[in-house]
Design a protein that fits this description.
This protein has about 280 residues and is of the alpha/beta class. It folds into two domains: about 5-105 and about 215-270, Rossmann fold (3-Layer(aba) Sandwich); about 110-215, Rossmann fold, CATH 3.40.50.1860. Helix content is about 45%, strand content about 15%. The chain contains 13 helices and ten strands. The protein has helices at about 20-30, 50-70, 80-85, 85-100, 110-115, 130-135, 135-145, 160-165, 170-180, 200-205, 215-230, 230-235, 250-260; strands at about 10-15, 35-40, 70-75, 105, 120-125, 150-155, 190, 210-215, 240-245, 265-270. The strands form two sheets. A six-stranded parallel sheet has the order 4-3-1-2-9-10, sandwiched between helices. Strands 6-5-7-8 form a four-stranded parallel sheet, sandwiched between helices. Helix 1 crosses helix 11 (about 215-230) and helix 5 packs across helix 7 (about 135-145). The protein starts with 9 loop residues before the first strand and ends in an 8-residue tail after the last strand.
Length: about 280
Amino acid sequence: MNESAQTNMKLGVFDSGLGGVMIARAMRELIPDVDMVYLGDTLHLPYGNRSEDAIFTYTQNAVDYLFRELGCQLIIMACNTASASALRKIQQSYLPEHFPERRVLGVVVPTMEYALDQGYERLGLIGTNYTVRSNIYEEELQKINPDIRIFQVNTPLLVPLIEDDGMEWIDSVLDKYIQPLLKRDIQALILSCTHYSFLKDRIRDRYKIDVLSQDEIVPLKLHHYLERHPRISDRIGRHGRECFYVTDLTPNYSEKASAFFKKDIILQQTQVGMFKP
């Protein structure tokens, strides 16, 4: 079948682990009938400590798998690290050559657009080592409004604590990371990792600050995108189906994914093959 004629395809959500499940849940709440497939690369978690070459390889393999094997029309790259490291190259090189009718969207630009729409002038950000080191948020911010200040802190302990039931230590770790940002008189804190959405209410209550959580931003931006691009939207099935895949499966992952999605879900382990042009 010619690609331009394909219908009943899926919306894909890709993350390096399970944090993106919270974005998938919010998408389901906002667009309840969309057919959706989730892929978490739990075998290589966390991406934030990987090299740029490794991140690109893992991301390209996942995107190719979602397109070729799982029938996705549009992929939301929920991983901030992958969005910072690999998204532009995938959009500019991989898609035009292999899947010109399909799209991959990230989370960085929607998050910055939302922050600026709220009128903030001093922003704090917590993220993985790679996301902060890449400086992608400040670069995008400079393109939109160079007068806005952003202060960033890399927070490598948060994902392991969230993934591995370390919540009893989370408050002291959050204090170490967030207190220096508060001293900068920030008006809002960007959670630039999907896993951190799990902590949004805790952070709001503990520090009495506006929190920009991507599970509250990205689904709304996606909804608007689909309204503006009916040719893409019309190819995505609307039967309310969903399936969840991971590249490594443990009992803890299954329990955590269900907690993130707020209902019992079944994770299926899959082997994502190496990309072959």
